[in-house]
Amino acid sequence: MDIQIAKTTQSLTTAAEMRETTKMLMKPSANWEDYLTPAPLSIAIMGELVFISHCDDFSINKNPPEGGFKFIKYPESFRACLMQVCNSGWHAFNEAHKNMDQIRIHTSTVPDYMKAAVNILFNGTDKVIENLLPNQLDNIRTIADECVTLADSVEKRYADVINLIQELLEACINAEHFYGEELEKVKMKLEENKLREQSARQLNDRSKKAMEDMSKQVEEAQNTYKKAMDSLPSGWEMIGMDFVDGLLSLPTTIINGVISIAASPFKLVSDAVTSQKNKSENAGEKLDEFTQMKAYSKSGEILMLAASLKQHVSGSKIDWEKLYDQKNNKMKTAWTEAQFKRISEELQKMPNDNMCKRALSFCERGITICEELATYTPDQTWDEKKTKNLIKDIQELNDDSLAFDTKSKAASHTPALTPKPPMMTKADNSSGGKSAGQRASQNARFRIEQSQAQLSQVRQSYEKSVENMEKNQKELTDILVEMQNCQLKEVDFKTKIKMLVKGLDAMGRVKEQWEKMVRFFQMVSNIIKTSLNKTLHNFVKTSDDTKKLSYNEKLFVKDLLYKQAFEASNVASLVHMISETYTEVSNKYLMDRVSSLGKLMAMDKERPEFLQERLNLQESCEEAQRGILQLVLENKKEFERKTDARMKKIEGELKAILPAAPPEETERIKEIVHASFSKEEEENFI
């Protein structure tokens, strides 16, 4: 039965399946279409700025900043400044289209390099791996570095437009051209934009630090493996393999967690803006989401250790015979206790936030249970009440560990069903898959329930995302319609400022998406550098001296290499999906409008054709907005179809082969999983 479960799970977690699953789980966060909707609005606003630049001119150089303007070239002419904004925007959209197409081409080659890397890991000798694998991984790293440069240059272009608009608004304030309530609104908007910039910088720094920490944790994982396997009690081979699985999940949780945070900068930005406006005394106590990811990365190991205790409980009895080591006259759970203590020490080195405290509490409870079990001796009769309480503690620790692992999957957007790396799969097959059938069935039921709840949560999040996008789209369109209805003589200074502020908003949203792209590629590059610098170096120096399992230290390092290359490939696949979407949208709905903007800027504003070109640009931008919205709705239907298909496939292939479970057991797993996912969702929207 357990062999059949393993084979079915493997068929559900192929590299292609996992790439699609990652895209699904990241869809609400990395939803490129959502951020593309302001693009036609940005172009339309620039067209209106060209139009209103024909109005009366004036100087904004009456009270210039010390050292002069950094971005404004023509402070003596407000009209010239408006044209400078339009020209910068035109260049930004042109470069975005060209660079994104190059990124699309680059990322399309990553799967081929990944296939070559896996083939070398599977079939190559140690010498072949040492000589050839670095080339394949270095190819992926080179692509990532090149894409960082491409994305970074576009992000800087958009930053130039935003900085120019900000400086122009500040110059208007200093020139004292407007007062009262409108002035306060502009000041608040400028302050909010500065907070956004600050938040983006902090996000970038923390993302970089998180990846550096992952490098250290990957190195520690190998040391942990060696020490743990050397001390593994005889007869616990199955627990040893589960332990390895938990260790290997560490890079996946951290990488997916960093991706999900980097893909959703708006939450961090809104938190920064809200805390600034409210001036909350507790603003500094806000939880660091990257620190939470480190705590969540321990969920796999904690769950494995809790499950290893529970498997020796049957009904109201404990299997003392299997737990007691007759040869050494001590409990085998001394190994489990040592692992809980090690994880506890690692958690104590992290910042003491709520998630760390929660993970620490599991370790403390596990240590207490192991200490209680260690008092057993074969010549004594255990008190029934004491046994009952101990079983209750073990069951509660296991249930809470299941809930914590579910929260980890929800927060990091890590798939519930994950593939076993190639060397572990080989070891399992060669040993005949000697894991406990009951345990395999229980774990499969839990993962099925997790997958269904996770996909259901992602669908709800995506629906909310689309609803918010439609609402924001309507608000922005209403403002633009109001501005476009202005006649030339009616365009006063207040209207111009309102347009600039809206232009700042729209360009800011597009720029934030490019910042996300930069972080994605930096992440791919960092993952590969970790593989090349640390893991591959460890592979070269390892020896095959761990003989507890058919799976030794060198195979473990191979799997670490595979995991890191696999996650880098997953991120690249996600970016390829985004770049394809952008290129499609840009070709259909943006570039013609950008060209029309360039034509409008070059035209003589006295000619009657100018007004006709302005009208054409307005209509085409409205058409583009409708087109992008239609694309979003089509993608939403496709997303729903894919999530339905994934749930049916898991239900049909994996659940169908499992033996019937007691209804109360099924209900208990459902309650644990759904309570954890719903709580996570609730926290996301508070």
From TrEMBL:
Residues 427-443 have a biased composition (Polar residues). Residues 200-231, 448-479 form a coiled coil. It comes from the Eukaryota. Residues 408-443 are annotated as: Disordered. Keywords: Coiled coil. The keyword Coiled coil applies. This is Uncharacterized protein LOC108873822. It comes from Lates calcarifer. The lineage of its organism: Eukaryota, Metazoa, Chordata, Craniata, Vertebrata. The gene is LOC108873822.
